[in-house]
Amino acid sequence: MTSDVISSKELKKIDPVFGQISYDDHEQIVFCNDKDTGLKAIIGIHNTVLGPALGGTRMWNYENEWEALNDVLRLSRGMTYKSAITGLNLGGGKAVIIGDAKTQKTPELMKKFGEFVHSLSGKYITAEDVGMTTGDMDMVREVTPYVTGISESKGGAGNPSPITAFGVFMGMKAAAKFKFGSDVLEDKTVFVQGIGHVGEALVEHLVCEGANVIISDLSQDRLEAVRSKYNVTIYGGQDLYSEEMDIYAPCALGATINDETISKLKAKVIAGAANNQLAEENKHSRLLQEKGIIYAPDFLINAGGIINVYAELENYDKQEIMRKTENIYNTTEEILIRAKANNVTTNVAALNIAKERIETRKQELAK
Ligand code: NAD
């Protein structure tokens, strides 16, 4: 036996794919490798009961393949429930390309990735995510029709971020109504953490409504730009989680809601754009519930982006995009009421509605 042969006992211990917690019954996982372009990608197809699995491609310099696999599994699962709860006839999928988007992304690599997407015959439809641009999707479009998020000039639906921000704003208003008895955000103190594409557009909505907006970002340039444009306050402290506020809007990275931050949080409502805000879904949504903090589930209120790209497949116009996105208000309200009535967390209430929709469709298909 050579040294790199792993014994079956060792392999059992590793359970590299099906044994992962994040595996969660994925239908298919495709590992893509191309020596010539250096492409190493993983496509995760979580569920296609409601339709083709649509979800963006992320290019990231993962520490190792485990991290990449775990990321794609978590993200594609999230897409299933995001589309289901939003009422879209889409399944959940996502892809990751392992590598540095700044230095390792080439047109050849993107096209090769597109060929892998094409080989799935439409079961998975890609779009842009972190590390990707509309231009990259245009490149993929050269080799496959199974791509969204392409340039408006090529028939795409354009930048999703303002739509995502509008959906977050709608979800935030519904959560505010539930907590404070009114959805008017005038004079409410809202911390927006991360004022990138979505965060800035959210700031604009909040300022129009008369909210007291406080912004934080790692980029001093962004902070200055947004402050001078909207006359909002830059957070000057060290630990925003322990500040008095009405609403915390995470619009930067995931997992900011965790053991440490929950113990300090004084916000009464959490509603933001970031994906996977809860470090551990069950545990942290329960801790928020126990503290009486209303959490508007991220995968529900940040669905504006997927609504926007879905328009490319269904050929509906901007008006319909906005109508569907505005409806996030109603869905959020429904979920918060359900969660209270059934004494479950808002995250569980949202997941249950999404799962019910998938199960109903599954039974219809079986007839
Ligand atoms: P972006 O990269 O344009 O902006 C993110 C901003 O957060 C940047 O300005 C960055 O400097 C800042 N940031 C990073 N770490 C921070 C930290 N620790 N504290 C404060 N600021 C920090 O991204 P975006 O497109 O605005 O997306 C924001 C979030 O929303 C992401 O989590 C993304 O996955 C999610 N999301 C975006 C869309 C969309 O349509 N763009 C759709 C759904 C979900």
Question: Keywords, please?
Answer:
6-stranded parallel beta sheet, 2 domains, single chain, Rossmann fold, 12 strands, 367 residues, alpha/beta, 6-stranded mixed beta sheet, globular, 14 helices
Plain-language structure description:
The protein is of the alpha/beta class and 367 residues long. It folds into two domains: 21-82 and 90-152, 3-Layer(aba) Sandwich (Rossmann fold); 161-356, NAD(P)-binding Rossmann-like Domain (Rossmann fold, 3-Layer(aba) Sandwich), CATH 3.40.50. Helices cover 47% and strands 14% of the residues. It contains 14 helices and twelve strands. The strands form two sheets. Strands 1, 2, 3, 4, 5 and 6 form a six-stranded mixed beta sheet that branches. A six-stranded parallel beta sheet has the order 9-8-7-10-11-12, with helices on both faces. The longest helix is centred in the first third of the chain and has 22 residues, at 65-86. The radius of gyration is 21 Å and the shape is globular. The protein starts with 7 loop residues before the first helix and ends with a helix. The model has no long low-confidence stretch (mean pLDDT 93). It binds nicotinamide-adenine-dinucleotide.
CATH architecture of the largest domain: 3-Layer(aba) Sandwich
In round numbers, the mean pLDDT is 93
SSE string, helix = H, strand = E? HEEEEHEHEHHEHEHEEHEHEHHHHH
- Strand residue percentage: 5-15%
Q: Give the structural class.
A: alpha/beta
Question: What is the number of E strands?
Answer: 12
Q: According to CATH, what is the class of the largest domain?
A: Alpha Beta
User: What overall form do the CA principal axes indicate?
Assistant: globular
Radius of gyration: 21 Å
Q: Biggest sheet, in brief?
A: 6 strands, mixed
